[in-house]
Specification:
The protein is an all-alpha fold and 115 residues long. The chain contains seven helices and no strands.
Amino acid sequence: MREGLETGHFQELRPWEQVFFVIALGHCEGPDHLARVALIDRLTEAHVIPGLPPALAHLADVLRSQNAPSRSVIERFGRYPHRNPFFGRVSTPIEEAYIATGDFTHMRGSARIEA
């Protein structure tokens, strides 16, 4: 993903393709995640949203509503705690409380994951 930004490939994509590009960035985890989420915000506001055709303009609010909760979760935990069972990670008590809510940023409207 970063390579696509560095080489300029991202700029060559149509806005709806850029949406998938930033979605993939947002689902990644790693030590640079907060910086990546900030990058997603900038890309979304500067490139994706302004380029959306009228038929896809409603995606602007969807993208914004996804970015803020993702950033909040990463700021709090440094990772997506609801993925802990899948990665064999031990959840902290605070993460367990979060997981118990079933309100996961990338799973809006999906079935709750049982740990």
